Amino acid sequence: MTTPVTPAPATNRSPVKFITAELNGRKLAFAEGTEFLVQWGRNAKASFETRARVTKFAQAVGLYKALNIAPGMKKRLLCPAFGKTAVLARETGI
Q: What percent of the chain has pLDDT over 90?
């Protein structure tokens, strides 16, 4: 006598696609759809204001590099999925 085998329940998960990139000599690996923030601030003591929120790494880097900053201003590119201190690039106007 054989016992019927029940198949494992099907999951609705799609496979995760990871992307690798390099920025300022640092190698990064992240999942497709990871959110990146481009932020800027006015002076050394001011907090940052989010200028753009995008899910494409190339677009985030392009926006970061295109953002001109005057003396006394600062900008940064970060990824909240990497943790609180996940600043990928930072620049300060002289």
A: 36
By residue count, the chain amounts to 94
Q: In terms of DSSP H, where are the helices of the chain?
A: 57-66
The 10 Å Cβ neighbour count of residue 71 is 7
What Rg do the C-alpha atoms of the chain give, in angstroms? 20
Give the span between the Cα atoms of 47 and 51, in whole angstroms: 13
Q: What count of other Cβ atoms lies within 10 Å of the Cβ of residue 20? A: 9
Distance, in Å, from the CA atom of 66 to the CA atom of 91, rounded to the nearest integer, reads: 12
pLDDT in tens, 9-52: 666 677 788 889 888 888 888 888 899 999 999 876 778 899 89
